[in-house]
Amino acid sequence: MTRRSTLTRRSALLAPILASPFLATAWRDAAAQDYTAGAIRIIAPGPAGSPRDLRARWAAEQLGPALDRPVVVDNKPGAGGNIGMEAAARSAPDGRTLVIVDNGTLTQNPHIYQRPGYNARTDFAPVIVLIEASLLLAVPAASPVRKVSDLVALARATPGKLSYGSPGIATPPHLAGELFSRAAGIDVLHVPYKGAPPAIQDLVGGRLDYVIDSVALLQPLAAAGKVHAIAVTGPKRLEGLPDIPTFAESGLPGVVYVAWMGLAVPAGTPAPLIERLNRELARALATDQAKAWFRGQGATTLGGTPADFAKRIETDYQRWGDVIRAAGIKAE
Fold first, then answer.
1. Are 73 and 291 contacting, i.e. CB atoms less than 8 angstroms apart?
2. Pick from 75, 201, 214, 289: most CB atoms within 10 A?
3. What is the pTM of this model?
4. Domain boundaries, position 165
């Protein structure tokens, strides 16, 4: 028997096996498992303790046992997330690198930075959207401000004197802050930091007048009396913070900002591996433990397929492009 006929016969024998949905899934899982042999890293484009870092560590805790291999978090802060995203884009699509992505790095930065260091639309393959969450407006504990109207009145009485901090230029908290400034008609100073933790540290120390940032970072400080939470950016109050009004309830209906966060891999990563990662993370997100953990941070778990995530990214890419061009927002 010739080599060609032997290969043909083997292919014929394999065909009914691969046609079985159960065995085909097992075949794909085995291929993905072999391909990702070795440690996996999740790049968090933010410092330790930042929202991106917290989500990356949650994902690492889920994927380590599920894939039976080490999963480490690699923090790469700076430039509004661009440094971490560039590192991920330049990584080999070998299944060993994932990156935390959000509407800041994938749908806003490309319109704000002339050279972000990566192409948001071609350098990555979506895996899964993890959560969406409102942001929280907080002021120092010693501040006389107790509601949004107090802050607006103070800012109007002292134009250019009040300051707010963000994790960096063009990050979601910065854009939410600009949205607030425009809606309220106030002139305030934006102070960009290299990540959220140092900005919040200065808020607690009274060196900033307010911050709009993650509920996960600000709510524990509010509970401890170190800051006052006065408004949320979402369309409705948060289940975990029922006494904190929305901006709309505070007289500024135009201030609505909901951030999302997920995971992506370098473009070219094999589809079977992406499917495996999506399946494991979707399973984890569906648990009561995950829902409760994220709810405690003011976030709602999402999930869905890579295709679902791709549609969300493209929709927001177009929407934020229109908003940013109209507002003339550019990185300094």
1. no
2. 214
3. 0.74
4. 134-258
* Identity at 244, one-letter amino acid code: I
Average pLDDT, the chain: 88
Residue 80 amino acid letter: G
**Same-domain check for residues 246 and 271:** no
pLDDT of residue 241: 86
Query: Quick one: CA dihedral 287, 289, 291, 293, positive or negative?
Result: negative
**Three-state secondary-structure class, residue 91:** coil
CA dist 218 → 23, 43, 121, 228, 306 (Å) = 48, 23, 32, 9, 31
Look up residue 136 and give its two tokens. 């929280």
Residue 23: per-residue pLDDT? 45
Q: How many alpha carbons fall within 13 Å on the CB side of residue 318?
A: 5
Cβ atoms of residues 211 and 200 within 8 Å = yes
3 state SS of 17:
helix
User: Other C-beta atoms within 10 Å of 223: how many?
Assistant: 11
Q: How high is the pLDDT of residue 5?
A: 44
CATH, residue 232: 3.40.190.10
Residues 81 and 168 in one domain: no
Half-sphere exposure for 281 (CA within 13 Å, toward CB): 28
Helix (H) or strand (E) holding 166, with range, is strand 163-166
Distance CA(204)–CA(197), nearest Å, equals 11
> Model confidence over 158-171: pLDDT tens digits?
999 999 999 887 78
Q: How confident is the model at residue 128 (pLDDT cuts 50, 70, 90)?
A: very high
By DSSP bridging, strand 163-166 and strand 189-192 are parallel
CA dist 134 and 238 (Å) reads 8
